[in-house]
UniProtKB/TrEMBL annotation:
Molecular function terms, GO-annotated: 2-oxoglutarate-dependent dioxygenase activity; metal ion binding
Family: Belongs to the gamma-BBH/TMLD family.
Taxonomic classification: Eukaryota, Metazoa, Ecdysozoa, Arthropoda, Hexapoda
Pathway: Amine and polyamine biosynthesis; carnitine biosynthesis
Identification of the protein by name: Gamma-butyrobetaine dioxygenase
Record's keyword annotation contains ATP-binding: no
Record-annotated TauD/TfdA-like domain positions: 173-417
Keywords: Carnitine biosynthesis, Dioxygenase, Iron, Metal-binding, Oxidoreductase
Residues annotated as domain Gamma-butyrobetaine hydroxylase-like N-terminal: 65-137
Single biological process term from Gene Ontology: carnitine biosynthetic process
Gene: LOC107264740
């Protein structure tokens, strides 16, 4: 009997033969092991120990289970065969599966299984043999606890919601030069961005390219029909309401894109000295969680009703007409909010839903909007020159109070986008290397 990570694991080997019944007594330990073969499909191994702890392994053609006092480890047989780690099935350098599914036998079953101190070995009916590290298997356990931990630690990471009262303690600041030159600071910034959805970079050089360089420190800039970057300043003639000096309503950027940009970088190059020009932010995730708990009907309407989003205009001679359909609150298969779409100017007059559903949606939207603008949930602050406000465009809504430009000093914000795929990738790489 072997001990591994708190598991008591016997060495067991069993085979299937033509309807024969095999019994094996492990000679080295005071245990009784029995092997049962039923219709060449099911094998059961029971282990009884005279010690206070015991373990058993059960196998069928579909599931292999290792049961211990700490709970069972269950793995689909087909998953184990599909994830064989031998050089013929897995390319180590690229960390990629190389099994050809065009010739993969989905009906392959285990003929022999052997548990050792650190490994699980299986002989398959397709004449293949696989060996798996037990630590590798434990990391990939199908238990709810393990799956949840992987999702929070490796997939989309843990998030902390906030309201107006919490905002100051959640807002982290980082020096531009430190982020650009030190990987540990880069990781701290990206961790704060994933956790709270917002952070500020200070000490940014007075350069129109600074936000772009910051983006390239992570990966590359997400281009849109506005190009690699956009300049927010008051204009007399514009097709974008953000380019007016009037108040800008709370919104997410580009909900009319099928794949909405993940993070916005707003570099305050010049700030207006006049009253106004304050940035407004609300954490939609906080509001969504509040609704899910206290008003589930409204939450359901906002997560299931598809809204038409639309934008028509031109930027630097580039004409565009973008359309997308998506709910205001988008859930993943775990019930977590993964995207928020909210923009009064870019919501289409076409609303492709049944009449009654439209009425219910407007009721739900009025409740959601009121919560977004509530003084308990929203915050205002004025960016300083040399700061880059970085925030999650798929989680936070942002807006701006109106302002009057000074003739000698006109407000100028340089913006660009990053995609979450690249940010998550960078975080995983940095966590391994820092």
């Amino acid at each position: 009997m072997y001990f591994f990570n708190g598991f008591i694991i016997p060495v067991v080997r069993y085979h299937k033969t033509n309807s024969a019944l095999l019994k094996t007594i492990l000679p080295s330990i005071n245990q009784l092991c029995s092997v049962h073969v039923r219709n060449l499909k099911n094998i059961k191994v029971d282990v009884v120990s005279n010690k206070s702890e015991s373990a058993a392994m059960f196998n069928s053609k579909d599931i292999i289970t290792i049961s211990t006092k700490n709970g069972p480890l269950k793995f689909p047989s087909v998953w184990l065969r599909d994830n064989c780690q031998c050089p013929n099935c897995f390319h180590q350098e690229s960390q990629s599966r190389t099994i050809d599914w065009g010739h993969f036998d989905f009906n392959t079953i285990p003929l022999a299984v052997e548990l050792k101190e650190t490994d699980l070995s299986i002989e398959w009916s397709d004449n293949h043999k696989s060996t798996y590290s037990l630590s590798w298997l434990i990391e990939r356990s199908f238990t709810k606890e393990k799956r949840t931990r992987y999702r929070k630690d490796c997939y989309r990471f843990n998030r902390v919601v906030w309201n107006a009262e919490d905002f100051k303690k959640c807002l982290k600041t980082f020096d531009y030069n430190d982020v650009m030159t030190d990987n540990n600071t880069l990781l701290l910034w990206l961790n704060a961005l994933t956790t709270y959805g917002v952070s500020i970079i200070t000490g940014t050089p007075d350069d129109i390219e600074s936000s772009k360089k910051l983006g390239h420190r992570v990966a590359f800039i997400r281009e849109t029909h506005y190009g690699e970057r956009f300049i927010v300043k008051a204009r007399r003639v514009t097709t974008n309401v953000a380019y007016l000096a009037a108040p800008l309503q709370l919104h997410t950027d580009l909900p009319y894109y099928d794949y909405t940009p993940g993070v916005i970088l707003l570099h305050c190059l010049v700030q207006t000295p006049s009253i106004g020009g304050e940035t407004q932010l609300t954490d939609c995730l906080y509001v969504a969680e509040y609704l899910k708990k206290n008003d589930p009907e409204t939450y359901k309407v906002l997560t299931t009703t598809y809204v038409d989003w639309n934008d028509i205009g031109q930027e630097d001679g580039n004409h565009f007409h973008s359309i997308n359909r998506a709910p205001v609150l988008c859930e993943d298969d775990f019930g977590d909010i993964v995207e928020v779409n909210f923009s009064q100017p870019q919501r289409d007059s076409h609303f492709n839903v049944p009449l009654e559903q439209a009425v219910e949606w407007y009721k739900a939207m009025s409740i959601f909007t009121r919560l977004l603008y509530s003084k308990e949930n929203t915050v205002f602050f004025k960016m300083n020159e040399g700061e880059i406000l970085t925030f999650d465009n798929r989680r936070l809504v942002h807006g701006r109070t109106g302002y009057d430009d000074d003739n000698d000093k006109k407000r100028r914000i340089i913006g660009c986008y990053l995609d979450w795929d690249e940010i998550y990738s960078k975080i995983r790489v940095l966590r391994k290397g820092v």
